[in-house]
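Kindly review this record before class:
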Amino acid sequence: MNLDDAQQTFIVESLELLQQMEDALLHIELTPDDDDTINAIFRAAHTIKGSAGLFGLDDLVAFTHVAESVLDRVREKQLHFDEALTALFLQVCDHIGVLVKLAADNEQPEASVQSRGGQLLDSLRRLLGATPESDHQGLSVVEPESARDHVTDSSEAHHWHISLRLGHGLLRNGMDPLAFIRYLSSLGHICNIVTLSDSLPPVAEMDPESCYLGFEIGFDSSADQATIEGVFDFIREDSQVHILAPHSNTDEYRQMIQALPQESLRMGEIFLLRCGTHMPAQVDVDDALRPSVPRQGQQAIEQETVVQPTIQPRQIDTASTGQSAKDIRQSQNSLIRIDAGKLDQLINLVGELIIAGAGANLAAQNAGASALVEATAVLARLVEEVRDSALTLRMVQIGSTFNRFQRVVRDVAKELGKDIRLEISGGETELDKTVVERISDPLTHLVRNAMDHGIEPAEIRLAQGKPAQGRLRLNAYHDAGSIVIEVADDGGGLNTAKILSKAIERGLVNEGQHLVDQDIFNLIFEPGFSTAEQVSNLSGRGVGMDVVKRNITALRGSVELDSIEGQGTTLRIRLPLTLAIIDGFRVGVGSASYVIPQDMVVECIELPANEGLDYLNLRGEVLPLIRLRELFDIAGAAARRENVVVVQFAGQRAGLIVDRLLGEFQTVIKPLGKVFGQVNGIGGFTILGSGEVALILDVAGLVRQVAAQSGATRSIPIRNDAVTRS
């Protein structure tokens, strides 16, 4: 097994568990006595600690162990989650994340990280009733006194005996037996260990991938039984694990010895003595090895008694899910983790396959071979299905990104001294994973900006007749082949007079120049523009909104802003569903070919014979026209019969006048270079089957250009209704 790969899996899964832990901590503030949420927090910490022990991450194990002990107190109702405890564990969650990331980079914690960890440990130990340690360099574990109440101060008070018979498939499943021993040593001192090799077959019959070992371990520790049992969580299902606590009674010794493999029964006493484990004086080993005979009168009762093993497999609560444990296991086994780079490579290969298929289809048509044309048509259909399946693999729900802002809103609201509630809707909306990753930072800035500038303090809201608690809303939905993400607040809205005054002061607008509200709103996206009276930790430096717009534009997206003073602001980010492959509609103008995203095409009509038209009456609606021949300065005379492709973006329609309609076309999007990146009306290019290049039209930019020229920018309606394609 490649341990580097295994550790990388541990890193990824630990970060996921930390995100789940953070979500649960944010939820626990609303329902502090929810046992399911408390158990979820405990399981996340416990799993991270157990996995970290397998890789020898001692700092992470020691720190998480103390946090786990506090959570155990919460589970036992000795402590309760309040605002202070939740805030502490959010910091604990952050520190565990720092340690996990350091492990990912194979780096040791710096002094500042150790100091921060020591401060958190002090806070946790106070909750356990232990004295904080002055030296924060070592992250030693201090157990609560309650965990040691059942033992005495003698040398045997903390002596445990652990009997292991490892399953044959342990190595094959990627487990390292020594890793469990190393992790066990982090909880105490291993006095003696005896390796058992009785099950080893002859060398000729030995399977190098099978494990034949067992161990008898004498172990001194002040940890409780649940903590020691947790060491073996990952192997309990296919291995025999028996743990004898200090001062165990006769029946417990008998049960452990009788559970050993038959050929090892007579060696039980030797193993116990060699490991430093002493039986009670009244226990006779030979007597312990003989099956017990129930006394008369107890036989009927004891025949019905089932002796449970010391460690029980982790149980799955299926009552709330309606699934059986078998269904859950099958569901878990049906999921696999795939490296994002491999998906990107798959998409690239599918794109090349589409281009090659288009070339084969063109060659078949030129050759006039009907059978070959039919074969390439079937191939094109199959390639399209492969494309859709491959793109589906990259699609993820945006809800997980939205949920991360619960923590941002909580922390920023406390920093600002405001009461703000985050509402999330449309979390099930899917879009390309790359888009999700690259939209996270712009969204963070917009959320923080809305909380700082948009939502007023409670006293001002109450004076204005608003609820004291501000409302911030994140929403997502699909619209005409795009995804729209809304960041809305019920704050004070944008002050147009203040924005215009600031713009005039900075020379962005001439004195006396008349601007509609939408143009004034768009001024906030200018570099360095800010209306904040003073600089704060969050904003006021004029850096951010211009970067937000630039990053969104780089994703072939756009930003729209609506605001009503005194009522709030809504900012909409409109993005393509994918950055890789789309369904396109190919048109021709002169000798050039252009591709229009098919989701934005509403219908195609023939252009009336009248010349010089800038608008068209389309069933009673005014349709502005864009002549691509004039826009791109294409030489030559127009076709005798021109066509109009009606496109729609953000509720606004326009007509593109073209010479020829060439039909649907699977389009592999290629980005433009830096030299052509700012060309208006072009969003990229693709390669045709003939090897020629076709430009992909930026419909959003063209529609906005038409709206600006007609002075109708402010009247663009935002609708969520579906577009009917003719």
Summary: The mean pLDDT is 77. DSSP finds 23 helices and 21 strands in the chain.
